[in-house]
Amino acid sequence: MKRILLTRDLWSGMLFAAFGVAALTLGHDLRIGSAARMGPGFVPHAIGWSLIAFGAVIAAKGLFANAERIGAIAWRPVVLILLSVVMFALVLQPAGLLPAIVALIALSVLAGRDGQLGPTLGLAAFLVVFCIALFKFALGMNFPVIAGIW
Length: 150
Fold this sequence. Notes:
0% strand, flat
């Protein structure tokens, strides 16, 4: 009897399929409609079934191909990236968009091993300018860039 190896493809296929099942479950009460008159549930159902199909293909590849086994989980990047997103959410309202983006990038760059100051500052500057242009001016969203100032 062949033993099933826990490969990256198998796990990622199962994750795709799980997200597809979640999309179908969350959108089960939405009317699907038809291709000519799409209802609010048409796209969630299409995406859900597509994710399940892609997940099945990727998982099958992981079962039948000579795939790479999963190594140890690098917990430091996982924790720091999740913490950076939480920090962004906590800092956005009281401090504004600029400090929230800087906090997000500062914590995210700690997750990698080769964080360099120049590219990090360039990314921070680009994201601040892009987000202000998009959310403040293009979309007209009303939140502070820097709390109490702008």
